[in-house]
Amino acid sequence: MSEVYADRRVRLRDRCAAAGSPAALVSRPANVRYLAGGSPPGAVLLVGPEPEADVLLRPVAPGGEPADGRLDELLRQEVLPTGGGDPAVAAVDLARRAGADALAVEEHHLTVARHRVMGAVASAPRLTDLDCAVEQLRIVKDEDEIGCLRIAAEIADQALGELLESILVGRTERHLALELERRLVDHGADGAAFPTSVATGPHSGRRGHRPTDRRVEEGDFLSVCLGADYRGYRCEIGRTFVIGTTPAEWQIELYELVFAAQRAGRESLVPGAEYRDVDRAARRILKAAGHAEAAVPLTGHGVGLEIDEDPQLSPSAMGKLDACVPVTVEPGVHLPGRGGVRIDDTLVVRQEADGGPELLTITTKELLAL
Q1: Contacts of 66 (CB under 8 A, 6+ apart)
Q2: pTM as predicted
Q3: d(Cα 150, Cα 176) in Å, to the nearest integer?
Q4: Using an 8 Å Cβ cutoff, are 194 and 307 in contact?
Q5: What's the rounded mean pLDDT across residues 243-253?
Q6: pLDDT tens by residue, 68-92
Q7: Measured between alpha carbons, how far is residue 76 from residues 7, 25, 134, 261 in Å?
Q8: For the chain, what is the total number of helices (H) and then of strands (E)?
Q9: What is the number of other CB atoms lying within 10 angstroms of the CB of residue 332?
Q10: What whole-number distance in Å separates Cα of residue 353 and Cα of residue 82?
Q11: Could you give the strand order of the β-sheet that contains 221-226, starting from the edge strand earlier in sequence?
């Protein structure tokens, strides 16, 4: 894996050099992990003018608080002495000593105060904005990353499948969410990818609903959204069911509508497709049925080391899909006072010659009465 991380740092170094900055300072934890294999608490990564100048600066010695991930063994590390100050400030001085006349930094992650102190280092290189260069590199995944996402999806499918075999009536949203998160860990996840959402009755179909003490009742819609974190990579799955009885006509109609919208979004995941066209493919079906105002604000988003990454599949998003980009497709409709439907899958964009979009989350999308 050391070669993988070294190659990522080379790509970032080349991008920065082309923009006039021979070095970069990465402080956002997910970006540090992407480039270094791990992200110890408080650590920053200096990508120097030459590979030999790359160094991870950390305020805590190895053996202290565990790193997030497994660090590249060939990457040089420097531990600041106790009370040694801010690793980012120390990195600025190292960049100066390495001969960098400009240093690209993640202004979107740094506080104003921290940026000011970094700029005040004696003879400091000129600070420029790295912007979201690392986030852009992270969009297209390699097959090892996709393999981790595939395992995460399998774990989430297992946890959800087991829940569906249990008795649900009378249990609270909060209880079901906690049980799902326990099952994720039981099946090999490092933890939940995000707080698990369980929504019943009038809460169903809401995006990001926080579980309450409302109990599951006969005839409810039950919406569940969960994800597994496996070796840092996070997937997402969402399904909606009916509890204990034959679905009502309005429930069947709403479910079929959202299912059609989700299918349209999935089928539009082809390399070269505009981000907003994927959103439009799903949204126009909901709009034609009169549910434009009740639909969720975006159709999907990228996943990886964070659960909500670029690209954003929204009405105003700019850009085009590439192959090997994992995204969610998650349209939904919530009707105030009645509830709603949300269907959510994680897929990987693939060339048509490779079979088209690869579906990672495979739990049935049939409207089940549990």
Answers
A1: 40
A2: 0.94
A3: 24
A4: yes
A5: 94
A6: 788 999 999 999 987 678 999 999 9
A7: 15, 15, 20, 49
A8: 9, 21
A9: 27
A10: 56
A11: 197-200, 221-226, 237-242
